[in-house]
């Protein structure tokens, strides 16, 4: 049985359980944490799940949790690292650019990336971001009649920063508005493969080892509005993309073609969580859907994904995450349930026998 953690607009945390290969068995959505009723902003923005000593650790704030510390970043660029050691909580604070739309930690945890409104995709060293002192450089104003040069100097702790694409056909600068990003691979602290989606419908792939401009720029992917979310799949060359409308599709990273799309979605998909042969999505129509997934193929895609099941949420789901535990086969799950049921039945029969013995003993005493 696969288990996913779902957060909603009210700050609640729920578990979604889905049994593979079980026909007629509806997904189970159960609340495990009630959100706070205080404050105006209660929605769960990001979920981070990690496992340590066979225990699942869940963090419901805009952060990433690890066995050592918790990293959090706000849209205003307030970066915070909280560490708990020997009962004491220590926090480190750093400042990043403002107007951020997305912030992601690399799989190895040594680096992170962000992007936003007029904020290019940037990669930072996690440790240096907190140790490097802020540097403020004051430059004199340029002489009259000369254009002001853009500052491309990397900030302390910054490893790499993307460069805007070429001007359009009219020679005008193209605006920058990155809405979502995901790490495809990370071989070292300075070598990363990143995909970012923009408000203007572009899906761009960056290789920090190759160049500052995107190595691939696909602009005919989404159908309505801009890119809402991008998420790397577990299959090779697989990327899931959702737009501002109600479209969710699987993208082939080799050529940027849409391998297949999902039908029957009535709201914008705001979050996706891939698992082996599965994809769970959270949409604004208050439905959490379970999708089937297949590896992208060159040429005609023989097998296409579909919506397997869906479950209604009383409040709008905002984020979903897989607990990273192995998906158990349905046969093993059924055997475990039968063994547990048999054990419970045997215990009830033993208690009934003890009750009969006590009744017989009382009757003998009365005689």
TrEMBL record:
Region span, Disordered: 327-367
Gene Ontology process terms (BP): ribosomal large subunit biogenesis
InterPro entries the UniProt entry points to: WD40/YVTN_repeat-like_dom_sf, WD40_repeat_dom_sf, WDR74/Nsa1
Any one annotated GO CC term: preribosome, large subunit precursor
Superkingdom as given in the UniProt entry: Eukaryota
Family: Belongs to the NSA1 family.
Identification of the protein by name: Ribosome biogenesis protein NSA1
Organism, as annotated: Schizophyllum commune (strain H4-8 / FGSC 9210)
Source taxonomy: Eukaryota, Fungi, Dikarya, Basidiomycota, Agaricomycotina
């Amino acid at each position: 049985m696969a288990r996913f953690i779902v957060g909603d607009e009210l700050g609640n945390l729920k578990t979604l359980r889905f049994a593979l290969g079980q026909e007629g068995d509806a997904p189970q959505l159960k609340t495990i944490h009630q959100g706070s009723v205080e404050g105006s902003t209660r929605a769960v923005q990001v979920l981070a799940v990690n496992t340590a000593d066979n225990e699942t650790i869940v963090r419901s704030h805009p952060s990433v949790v690890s066995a050592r510390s918790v990293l959090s970043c706000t849209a205003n660029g307030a970066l915070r690292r909280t560490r708990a050691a020997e009962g004491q909580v220590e926090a480190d604070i750093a400042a990043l650019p403002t107007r951020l739309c997305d912030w992601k930690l690399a799989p190895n945890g040594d680096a992170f990336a962000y992007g936003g409104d007029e904020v290019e995709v940037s990669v930072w060293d996690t440790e240096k971001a907190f140790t490097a002192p802020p540097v403020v450089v004051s430059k004199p104003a340029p002489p009259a009649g000369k254009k002001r040069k853009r500052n491309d100097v990397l900030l302390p702790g910054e490893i790499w920063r993307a460069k805007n694409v070429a001007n359009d056909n009219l020679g005008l600068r193209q605006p920058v508005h990155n809405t979502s990003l995901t790490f495809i691979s990370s071989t070292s602290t300075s070598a990363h493969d990143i995909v970012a989606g923009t408000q203007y419908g572009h899906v761009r792939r960056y290789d920090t080892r190759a160049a500052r401009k995107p190595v691939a720029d696909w602009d005919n992917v989404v159908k309505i509005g801009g890119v809402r979310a991008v998420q790397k799949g577990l299959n090779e060359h697989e990327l899931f993309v959702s737009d501002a409308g109600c479209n969710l599709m699987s993208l082939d990273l080799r050529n940027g073609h849409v391998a297949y799309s999902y039908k029957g979605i009535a709201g914008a998909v705001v979050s996706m969580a891939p698992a082996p042969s599965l994809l769970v999505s959270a949409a604004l129509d208050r439905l959490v859907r379970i999708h089937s997934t297949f590896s992208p193929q060159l040429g005609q895609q023989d097998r296409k994904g579909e919506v397997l099941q869906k479950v209604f949420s009383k409040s709008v789901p905002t984020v979903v995450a897989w607990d990273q535990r192995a998906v158990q086969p349905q046969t093993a799950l059924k055997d475990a349930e039968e063994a547990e049921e048999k054990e419970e039945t045997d215990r009830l029969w033993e208690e009934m026998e003890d009750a009969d013995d006590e009744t017989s003993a009382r009757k003998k005493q009365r005689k």
